[in-house]
Amino acid sequence: MNKKNNNKGFGILFFIVFLLIALWPILNGGNLRIWSLLIGAIFLVLGLLDSKILNPFKKIWIKFGELLGKVIAPLVLSIIYFIVITPIGLLLRIFGKDLLGTKLLDKKSYWIKREKDIGPMKNQF
Question: What is the pLDDT of residues 74-90, one digit of tens each?
């Protein structure tokens, strides 16, 4: 994708965002936010004209997205780990479950003896 499409898409995206901000109070019986509508119109015009003025805003937006990704991803993964994985592990330990069969009580090896012969491995596909 070339820079022209990137600036155009960026301008249209921010036009939509500021348009939604301008129209939001109408849902609650409020007044239209003119300042937001004007900013959105500026972004739309600059985006459609492929203005180089949008380049610094786009760079700031991309840096903000990268920073947000560095913060949010570990936070979400930590929440998933501590809310989902940890309780499951604790419950399995409480009930004495060994889903992977890793407890070596009196065995010398983890090897599982098969009852059936698998057969030759030639021509698998």
Answer: 999 999 999 999 999 99
* 10 contacts 57 by C-beta, under 8 angstroms: yes
Amino acid identity at 23: L
Residue 61: Cβ within 10 Å count: 14
φ and ψ of 49, to 5 deg: -85, 0
**How many beta carbons lie within 10 A of that of residue 11, not counting itself?**
25
Q: What is the pTM of this model?
A: 0.59
Q: State the angle between helix axes of 34-48 and 3-27 in degrees (0 to 180), rounded to the nearest 10.
A: 160
The one-letter code for the residue type at 14 is: F
Q: What is the residue type of 47?
A: G
Contact 33, 22 (CB under 8 A): yes
Token pair for residue 99?
């889903």
